Design the sequence.
């Protein structure tokens, strides 16, 4: 149970801190990227030793493919991540409403300048890079556990800066789920893109990282 609670809080912190920086603080793109990146760094160092620090269904999918987590745990990890993101979005909605801000702006992910197909490609590529870096830096044989949280957080910052103007930079179905569900509109109708793209990226990362870290025979 402690593992699932840790995944809940990791996803909660990611969505609440990052989305609050965008909606309540109304920060710049750099501020928003840093908020999400630092949230995942803090969560990784705080909860990583308990659950492994996934906080993202795409990461959990990759770990499942690499047989680093059981199917049962993977299912409960994902459930905890989605609930964590939803609770964070609900709390954000409460604060936004109390402050008299628009309740349809919850830092939900969406795309307006590109097609759904291109959006999937962007999310798939960014998530592939992100999850590959996670798998490599946390690899038992080749990784660096001491700096893993920092590297993961910085990677997320850079990938958000790279893709936020295209898709809002999700890279995580649990990050997109809560805000889209509560804000509605086109972000909700486009939510499937933020499931398909990141999950495909996670699958590709699992296969690539496994090949890259395999010992030569």
Sequence:
């Amino acid at each position: 149970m402690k593992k699932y609670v840790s995944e809940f809080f990791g996803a909660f912190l990611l969505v609440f801190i990052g989305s609050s920086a965008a909606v309540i603080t109304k920060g710049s793109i750099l501020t928003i990227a840093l908020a999400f990146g630092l949230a995942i760094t803090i969560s990784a160092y705080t909860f990583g030793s308990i659950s492994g620090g996934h906080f993202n269904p795409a990461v959990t999918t990759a770990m499942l493919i690499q047989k680093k987590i059981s199917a049962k745990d993977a299912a409960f990890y994902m459930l905890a991540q989605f609930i964590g993101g939803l609770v964070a979005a609900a709390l954000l909605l409460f604060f936004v409403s109390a402050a008299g801000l628009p309740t349809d702006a919850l830092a939900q992910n969406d795309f307006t300048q590109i097609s759904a197909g291109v959006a999937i490609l962007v999310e798939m590529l960014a998530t592939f890079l992100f999850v590959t870096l996670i798998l490599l830096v946390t690899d038992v044989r080749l990784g660096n556990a001491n700096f893993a949280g920092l590297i993961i957080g910085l990677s997320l910052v850079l990938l958000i800066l790279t893709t936020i103007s295209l898709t809002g930079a999700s890279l995580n179905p649990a990050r997109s789920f809560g805000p889209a569900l509560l804000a509605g509109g086109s972000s909700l109708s486009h939510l499937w893109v933020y499931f398909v793209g990141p999950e495909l990226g996670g699958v590709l990362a699992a296969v690539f990282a496994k090949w890259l870290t395999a010992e030569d025979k």
Notes: The radius of gyration is 16 Å. The chain has a mean pLDDT of 96. Residues 110 and 150 are 28 Å apart (CA to CA).
